[in-house]
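Loading example: each entry is read as two labelled lines plus one structure line.
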Amino acid sequence: MSDRMPERLAVRKTYKLFIGGAFPRSESGRSYVVTDAKGRFTANASQASRKDARDAVAATRKAFPGWSGRTPYNRGQILYRIAEMLEGRRDQFVGELRRAGASKGDAADEVDAAVDRWVWYAGWADKLAAVTGAANPVSGPYFNFSAPEPTGVVAVLAPDSPLLGLVSVVAPVIVSGNTCVVVASEPAPLPSITLAEVLATSDLPGGVVNVLTGRRAEIAPWLASHMDVNALDLTGAAAEDVRALESDAAGNLKRVFRGAETGWTADPGTARMTAFLETKTVWHPMGV
Amino acid sequence: MVFEYAPAPESSAVVDIRASYGLFIDGEFVDGHGEPFKSINPADESVLADVARADESDVDRAVKAARTAYDTVWGPMPGRERAKYLYRIARLVQERSRELAVLESIDNGKPIRESRDVDVPLVAAWFFYYAGWADKLAHAGFGPDPRPVGVAGQVIPWNFPLLMLAWKIAPALACGNTVVLKPAETTPLTALLFADICRQADLPPGVVNIVTGAGDTGRALVAHDGIDKVAFTGSTEVGREIARVLAGTGRRLTLELGGKAANIVYEDAALDQAVEGIVNGIFFNQGHVCCAGSRLLVQESVAEEVLERLKARMATLRVGDPLDKNTDIGAINSAEQLAKIRELSAAGEAEGATAWSPPCELPARGFWFAPTVFTDVAQSHRIAREEIFGPVLSVLTFRTPDEAVTKANNTPYGLSAGIWTEKGAQILWTAQRLRAGVVWANTFNKFDPAAPFGGYKESGFGREGGRHGLEGYLSV
C-alpha cells in the first residue's frame, strides 16, 4: 500500500464513437493508444471497424430528410448554437489541444478560430441559395429557376488539424443540409469526440454528424465504396490512397472533393460548401 | 371523315454529303490511322459516307494541336475577341440551319420537324448565349480573374449529335479552353459539317479538333495525359469507367449520364395537357433522351382515364420517314440500339407487364420501333428500373403524393422528373422532394442555354447551361 495517497483521483473520460446521436464503443471492441506530444499515454480511442462505418452511414442517411428539410434559418441557428456551446467549453478544448502538443497561445487561438468558424458558416445557411441559385431568363413563356440542394450523405476524411481543421471540413458540409460521417484525425482523435459532445448538446439532430475514430486507411475504403454515400471529402486522405479511393467512389458516381490543406486560418471561401450541392432547375409555363 | 396526310418530304438537296470524311485536326481535314467506318442512314440502312477512325496517334496529334492553340492563341486571347468568334459561329449555324437540320435527320433518324425546330435553333442559341459570357467571366461569381482549365477532351452521344456538341464546345471556348471532341460512331456527320463552320468563322486552327471513331477512340481521348478536363455525355456505365480512369489524376470531370425519369400525373391535372406532356416526354426523339419521362406515375383515381386518352393520342402518332415534315417519330438510331429496346421490351413482357402499341405500319427497311406503353408494371421490373432509351413507356400508379415521391425517387438515377397538377402548392411541394436535377412542371423536355441542366446521384455531376455551366471549364 502506497504511503502517498493522491488528494483526489481524476475521473477520466472514455473516448467512444459518435453515431446517431449516441456514444457507442466500436462494435469490434478495439481501441488504440493515443499519446501526448511527449509520447505519454493519454487515452484509448475507439478503433472503428467496417461495421461501425456502415452503422454510421445508416444513421447519416436516416438523419438526411429531417436535416435537409429544416429551414435554412433553423440550420443557421443550430450552427450558431454549436459556436455558443464550444465557446462555453473553451478551457476544455485548450487543454486537449495542449495535450496534443500545441502551445498555450496556439491552443487558445485555435479554439477561438474554431468558434468563429461555426459563426461564419452559421450565417451562410440562409444565403447560399441567393449566391448559387438563379432565376433563368429562358427564351419562352416559362418561369424557370435553379436552386441549390444538399447532395445527401457525405463521408469526410478530416485533416490532422484536430479542432479547427475538423470544424472547417464539417461545418460547410452540414450547413446546406447534408449529413455526414467524419473520420477524425488518426493521431489526434480526442478533440473530435469532445466536439461530438458539443454537437450532442446543440440541438443538432442525432445522425447529422457522426464521428469515427480509428485507422483512416482501414475505414476510408468502406466509405468510398459504400453505395449509400453520395459524396466524399478526401481532405485528410494520404496522397498515396487518393487514387484507390477515387476509383472506389466511381462505383455510384460520388462527388469527390479534394480540398487542399492550405492552412486553416485563411478565409475558407465557398468551395467547400458548393462541392456538396446539387443544382435543381424547375420549369413552369406562364399563361392564363 | 378521316384525313390522310400527303407526303411532305424535306428536300435533301440542301446538303452535300461527301463520300469520305477525315479527322479535323489543327484546322485541317486529315486521314486517320484506324480502319475507316461507315455512317449509315438508320431510316433505310443506306451508306452515307466513309468516316476516318482516329487511333491513339491521331488522338495524340489532336491533343497536341489543342495544347498549342491553347498556349499560343486561344488562352491569351482577350475574352471580347473569343466572344466574337462564338457569335460568328452562332450566326453561321443560323445561316446554314436547314443544311444542318437535314443532315442531322439523315444521319440520326430524328424527324426533320425536331431537328429543324428544336436541335439546330438550340445549337445557335447555345453559342450565342456563351459568346456573351466570354468577356464577362469576372462577373460570374468564380473570383475576379477566373482562368480556363486548358485542353478539354469531350465525348458526346448520338441522340442529339450537334446539340451535344454545342453544349460541350460553346462553354469550353467561351472560358478560354481548347477542345478535342469525339462524336458518336453512328452520328459523326454534323460534327464534321461543324468543322467546316469553324473554318468559315476563321476560328484559329487547333481550337476545335474533331476525332471520329468508336469506343477505342473515346478511351484514348479520356485517358490522354495531355488533357486537363473530360466532359462526357452518355451511359452511366461508361461514365463510371471514365471516372475510374481519371481517379487520382487530378483532372477535372463532368458527367451527364442516364436517367429513368418519373412523370407524375396527379388526379387534378389538366388531363389533355398532361397526355401531350406524357407523349412529348417519352416519344420525343424516339425516346432517345436521357431525361425522357420513361416512368409514368399516375394517380390511381385517374389512371384509367389517362391511359384511355394516352392510347387515343398515341394512335395519331406518325412513325416513318424522318425527312417528312409530318413525321412525329423517326427511326431508331442503330441496329444495336434497336436490339437493346427489343430486349428490354421482351423482358417487360416476360416479367408480367402488358405491352400495347397503336396499329402502325413500319417501313420495311431501316430501324423502327412502334411507340409502346407498358401497364401492369411493378417497380422491380427491368422496364421500370433500366434506361430503355427508346419509345417505350412504363406506367405505374400511386395513391398519395408521398407515395408518388417515394416511387419517383426509387432509382439510382436523378436526372429529371415531371409533375402535372393544377395546384401550385402541390407542384412546389413535389418539386422540392424529387431528387432530380431538372423538374418540369406542367411541361416536359424543355431546354434552354440559360437554364442549368444535369443530374443527381448516378445521373452524373456538373451542370451544362447557364452561369453554372461555366464552372466545369474554369479553374475555380
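Chain A touches chain B at residues 131-132, 134, 136-140, 142, 144, 146, 151, 230, 242-247, 249-253, 255, 258, 271, 278-285 (CB under 8 Å).
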